[in-house]
Amino acid sequence: MRLWKNPALVTLLALGSAVTPAFAADPLSAPAPIPASGWIATVKGNLGVGSSYPGSDDFSAIGYPSISFRRAGAPQRFSAPDDGLSFSVLEDSAFRFGVVGRFQGGRYLKNDRRLYGLEKINWAVEPGLFLEYWPVDFLRARAEIRHGVNGHDGFVADLGIDWVQRLGAFILSLGPRLALGDSEFTQTYFGVTPFEAAVNGLVTPYNPSGGITSVGATAGLSYDWSQQWSTTAFVSYKRLVSDAANSPIVKRFGSENQIGVGLTVSYSFDTGL
């Protein structure tokens, strides 16, 4: 396992509007109540382990902080562990709509010496829009569409459905995932030019098309220790499909199976504002 760190990622996520995966807490003890007016801040410490780059069979770990704000008295919205960092522009009982952002790590020779001759891919940020819909109070559908900046110039989308259930102080979530990318995205991460193939010597030229890139699922388990403290653990699985799975980079150096795990610790407090 390689420990990967990037100051730009830490800065981006620290400024993001992340949301702790929990509804209004059912405290197990009797902490000092959070005031009913003003603003509540939620500070999170996040630790995740996942593929070093799209299609890799090696893993990297990363830790980063994030913070979000909500009006006191408002229930904390559920957020799946693999949601992008989002900020709602429109919000009611069933719909949410707003802006979202994600970070996509790069692909570097230091990740895998077998990548020799393949073009380096820088890290990317992916700003975009999201839409959520709750047809019933235990089922959520969410869609994100984003555009890459810096590392890639493609459009990507993530679709998911989550079954969400509170069991006392626990919140369990589970649901399927579908990821898509256009030809710019797939060519960046899964394509091989004739020149790259000639220099590398282990892969053949490959020109993938856009479409579905992976299918999978994400499961999360949150525990509310009190009105202030909560923790969330999660595991995610993606299976690369179609042109992404057929890439010689994946076949030769990586894996179609992409697994991620993570842990988040959250603390909410009155800002006094």
Automatic annotation (TrEMBL):
GO cellular component: cell outer membrane
Keyword Zinc: no
Superkingdom of source: Bacteria
Annotated coiled-coil segments of the chain: none
InterPro entries: MipA
Oxidoreductase in keyword set: no
Leader sequence residues: 1-24
Compartments in which it is found: Cell outer membrane
Keyword annotations from UniProtKB, A to Z: Cell outer membrane, Membrane, Signal
Family: Belongs to the MipA/OmpV family.
Full protein name: MipA/OmpV family protein
Organism: Microvirga alba
